[in-house]
Design a protein that fits this description.
The protein has nine helices and 15 strands. The protein is an alpha/beta fold and 294 residues long. The chain has a nine-stranded mixed beta sheet. A hairpin with a 2-residue loop joins β4 and β5. The structure holds S-adenosylmethionine. The site of S-adenosylmethionine has 20 residues, from α1 and β14.
Length: 294
């Protein structure tokens, strides 16, 4: 029986990350405070200072991530004085200089974004999920996130044209092409890089909590059981709780005492519950792993 560890540190992740060993983390999933947003709850960083603030943190993240690991950064630039800030773009450029590969940009489509009307723009219903790696080869378990092919495919695949049955190269000479008949007989297919998820409405204890499906999707895609997941801006601890449920070790850091206490308390309640469950003498006990807090 292998143990699943959930470690929680209290403090500024710039300092706390230094306690973690080099090359020890398989996946980092996190949502730092956005520039100047939510100032009333946990402070904001001015957009002009954001890159300088983040660089020492991303340097530590680069150190602790395994060469095969992945870093998913949830971020979105806000509108300042009628213009989108450019700090996220500047951040990507600086992180590349720091040694990161900017592998991919996933989009989190927020299915239930706030209603509203602005004179010069529409409702904001997506956020960036930037993927960074230390190397071009990294662990990725694509089959773990396959999705049902969907009803549209049944009608699309019913009457295939001659073009559908062979590789159809793009007309613009890009070298890309498709063979629609490859999808025949498949129940599941690989997803796109757009995640359609509602924002978290049930977690009333934190103003910016992830929907659980968000860390869950990336944990499935980039880790296997007993791997280690890090969230240096843990908030209400969504990443840690999801990781634990998925039999992954995890490490979280949180600077606000109320949020830190809230995570700690919930972890303690969960381990007591698990201990009770393990001792219970009814039916077959499905649990094969114990859980610990440090
Ligand atoms: C956007 S929230 C993260 C929410 C989290 N994803 C969840 O699902 O609850 C960012 C969190 O980072 C914390 N934070 C801000 N600066 C920090 C720092 N320097 N070190 C550690 N935590 C920090 C804030 O207190 C806040 O809870």
């Amino acid at each position: 029986m292998k143990e699943i560890k959930t470690e929680l540190f209290f403090g500024d992740c710039t300092k706390e990350l230094k306690k973690l060993p080099d090359n020890s983390i398989d996946l980092i999933v996190t949502s730092p405070p956005y520039a100047d947003q939510r100032k009333s709850t946990y402070g904001g960083i001015h957009p002009n200072k954001y890159v300088n603030w983040f660089m020492p943190i991303s340097k530590e993240l680069l150190r602790v991530l395994k060469p095969t690991g992945t870093f998913i950064l949830n971020i979105k630039e806000k509108v300042v004085d009628g213009e989108r800030s450019t700090y996220v773009m500047e951040l990507v450029l600086e992180m590349r200089k720091q040694g990161w590969f900017w592998t991919e940009e996933f989009i989190w489509h927020k299915k239930n974004s706030f209603p509203g009307k602005w004179s010069n723009r529409f409702r904001d219903s997506w956020e960036r999920l930037l993927q960074f790696n230390k190397a071009k080869q990294f662990n990725m378990y694509q089959d773990a996130v396959k999705v049902p092919i969907g009803d549209w495919a049944k009608s699309r695949l019913k009457n295939l044209s001659t073009t559908d049955k062979k590789r159809d190269n793009a007309k613009n000479g890009s070298g890309f092409g498709k063979n629609v008949s490859n999808w025949l007989g498949k129940d599941t297919v690989y997803p796109t890089n757009v995640l359609h998820l509602a924002t978290e409405c049930n977690n009333k204890n934190h103003s910016a909590a992830f929907p659980e499906e968000l860390p869950e999707w990336f944990i499935n895609l980039f880790t296997t059981e007993y791997d280690t997941v890090l969230d240096p801006f843990a908030g209400s601890g969504t990443t840690l709780f999801v990781a634990k449920r998925m039999a992954r070790n995890s490490v979280g850091i949180e600077i606000v005492p109320e949020y830190y206490d809230m995570i700690k308390e919930k972890l303690e309640i969960e381990s007591q519950y698990i201990l009770f469950e393990e001792r219970a003498d009814y039916g077959k006990n499905k649990l094969t792993k114990s859980n610990s807090i440090r």
